[in-house]
Write a structure and sequence with these properties.
By secondary structure, the protein is mainly α. It is about 70% helix and about 0% strand. The protein contains three helices and no strands. The model has no long low-confidence stretch (mean pLDDT about 90). Keywords: Acyltransferase, Transferase.
């Protein structure tokens, strides 16, 4: 395993943990899906 692999694994984990629905709603100016259902 190279020295850069742990950083890539951490970056991939963080990207996967971000909810895309929340990002899309914020960018589009829509209400938060966690509150409005």
């Amino acid at each position: 395993m190279s020295a850069i692999a742990p950083g890539m694994i951490l970056f991939a984990y963080l990207c996967g943990s971000i909810s895309s629905a929340i990002l899309v709603c914020r960018i589009a100016g829509l209400p938060d899906p966690r509150e409005s259902g």
